[in-house]
């Protein structure tokens, strides 16, 4: 932004004195901040230098932590100027919106703004220009007051609970934390409407509840007015990771062990169906997304979700998202519709973001007819999974459950004062008991909370099944598992955790495992 602003300012002022590039030594700080009385500073870092600085503060008396967003301060004259330009730009940018791409919109915004600035005043300080352009970019192209929050990679969730209530965050380092940002009623209603529009959804007082996906992939749940949420309009944003977690991240976090991940790698490669269970924020979708990297590169994959969360790096991938009717008379496209459509597309892998209703029966029918399927479900343990699947509103026939191969249960817990995620249990479905008709399960891995480690059970039904399908001996099976553990340990040791490098190594192993193992031995 700096270079473009500089060029435009110099162009507009070519008959006046040339404008120098912004520098801290010449123009001073844009963000001025004094620690409030009764607080002490814990940490500070830039989000958008030199415009946005984040301060982590602690209240000395209560030890409460505060997330403070520092932005350029405006004088009364600068505030008045910003309001004037803001009004005048509304009509100009609305007319031009369809003509330009995002980068061009940014350039046009700055050009129009500078033109207006020098119509209002011939003697503006350069610092004033930079401040006003920052706020115009933030408000027109960004997310207004919460723009900095959506740019901070340390934030997982953003929650606005109502009118004149501070926004709360979930910070990866500090957990739940209060901010210095809040909205009055008029601004909050306007912002919620704008937020939903960015997610291509309509919200109104007649239809005050919306689930949507923002352009960066983050999930938003919003309400408008006091009818549904009595403290006023609200929104919750669950941040989307631009760079998704890989199996190496899950191993580093101790969410799973190397042995578990090698097991899942072999299971995914050999088309074993999997269901990931857990409570809210237990990391179900992150695990689902990460193990999808084990799907062979050329396989055809179809994903089905209510709101887009999954990110696959396969060329042969169809990403399906449900659609609510935009207007009266338009048809809804739900997960059941997308799943029926997916079955006609001859996929090798079907991934459903979360099963909640009738689509689960079709998913299990797909499993029964040989399709490999992965999904998540809200449940606290294995018995909860079975109960949810067999009862309203899902109602999967009891006999169909044997088509599922593996169930994992994830939990979120606090370890040494830090919230962590663990794969509490991994079980195999081995069929139905002929006498009782009950589902038979085989415990493969369990998390031991005392030692924070994973304990392996007995013989694996799934691995033995793969061994017979492949025509391997037991020694060959054990060698394959050991090879995969060696590859994963190599990536952990060398911190190879970005998805591209990870996917390249997995693909190389599929093409020529002997060559990969030989290179590991030489490394």
TrEMBL record:
Species the sequence originates in: Candidatus Methanoperedens nitratireducens
Annotated Bacterial type II secretion system protein E domain ranges read 207-410
Which UniProt keywords are given for this protein, alphabetically ordered? Cell projection, Cilium, Flagellum
Q: Which Pfam families match?
A: PilB3_C (PF23989), PilB3_N (PF23990), T2SSE (PF00437)
Indicate the segments forming the PilB3-like C-terminal domain, all copies.
Answer: 458-521
- What region holds the PilB3-like N-terminal domain? 7-72
Q: Name one GO molecular function term.
A: ATP hydrolysis activity
* CDD domains associated with the record: VirB11-like_ATPase
Name the family.
Belongs to the GSP E family.
InterPro entries cross-referenced by the UniProt entry: P-loop_NTPase, PilB3-like_C, PilB3-like_N, T2SS/T4SS_dom, T4SS_GSP_E_ATPase
User: What is the designated name of this protein?
Assistant: Flagella-like protein FlaI
The answer to whether keyword Glycosyltransferase applies is: no
Gene3D superfamilies in the record: 3.30.450.380, P-loop containing nucleotide triphosphate hydrolases
């Amino acid at each position: 932004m700096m270079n473009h602003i500089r060029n435009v300012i110099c162009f507009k002022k070519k008959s006046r004195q040339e404008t120098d590039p912004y520098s801290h030594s010449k123009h001073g700080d844009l963000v001025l901040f004094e620690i409030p009385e009764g607080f002490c500073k814990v940490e500070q870092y830039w989000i958008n230098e030199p415009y946005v600085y984040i301060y982590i503060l602690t209240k000395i008396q209560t030890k409460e932590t505060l997330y403070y967003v520092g932005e350029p301060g405006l004088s009364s004259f600068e505030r008045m100027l910003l309001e004037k330009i803001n009004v005048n730009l509304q009509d100009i940018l609305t007319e031009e919106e369809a003509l330009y791409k995002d980068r061009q919109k940014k350039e046009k915004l700055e050009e129009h703004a500078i033109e207006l600035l020098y119509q209002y005043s011939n003697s503006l300080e350069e610092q004033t220009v930079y401040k006003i352009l920052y706020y115009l970019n933030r408000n027109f192209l960004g997310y207004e007051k919460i723009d900095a929050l959506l740019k901070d990679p340390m934030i997982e969730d953003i929650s606005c609970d109502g009118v004149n209530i501070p926004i709360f965050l979930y910070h990866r380092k500090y957990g739940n934390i209060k901010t210095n940002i809040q909205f009055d009623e008029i601004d909050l209603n306007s912002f919620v409407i704008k937020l939903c529009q960015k997610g291509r959804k309509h919200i109104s007082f007649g239809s005050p509840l919306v689930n949507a996906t923002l352009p960066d992939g983050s999930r938003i749940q919003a309400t408008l007015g006091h009818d549904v949420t009595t403290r006023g309009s609200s929104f919750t944003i669950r941040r989307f990771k631009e760079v998704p977690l890989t199996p190496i991240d899950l191993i580093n976090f101790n969410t799973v062990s190397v042995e578990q991940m090698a097991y899942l790698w072999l299971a995914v490669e050999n088309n074993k169906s999997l269901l990931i269970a857990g409570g809210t924020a237990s990391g179900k979708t992150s695990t689902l997304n990460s193990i999808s990297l084990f799907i062979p590169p050329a396989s055809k994959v179809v994903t089905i979700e209510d709101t887009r969360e999954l990110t696959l790096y396969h060329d042969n991938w169809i990403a399906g998202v449900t659609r609510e009717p935009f207007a009266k008379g338009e048809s809804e496209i739900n997960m059941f519709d997308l799943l029926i459509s997916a079955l006609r597309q001859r996929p090798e892998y079907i991934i459903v973001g979360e099963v909640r209703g009738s689509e689960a029966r079709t998913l299990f029918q797909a499993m029964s007819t040989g399709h490999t399927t992965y999904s998540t479900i809200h449940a606290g343990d294995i018995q909860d999974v079975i109960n949810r699947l067999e009862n309203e509103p899902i109602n999967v026939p009891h006999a169909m459950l044997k088509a599922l191969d593996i169930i994992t249960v994830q939990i979120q817990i606090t370890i040494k004062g830090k919230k962590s995620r663990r794969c509490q249990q991994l079980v195999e479905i081995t069929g139905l008991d002929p006498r009782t008709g009950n589902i038979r399960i085989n415990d493969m891995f369990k998390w031991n909370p005392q030692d924070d480690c994973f304990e392996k059970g007995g013989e694996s039904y799934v691995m033995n099944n793969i061994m017979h399908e492949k025509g391997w001996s037991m020694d060959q099976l054990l060698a394959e598992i050991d090879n995969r553990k060696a590859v994963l340990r190599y990536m952990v040791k060398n911190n190879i955790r970005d998805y591209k490098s990870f996917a390249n190594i997995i693909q190389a192993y599929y093409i020529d495992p002997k060559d990969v193992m030989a290179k590991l031995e030489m490394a």
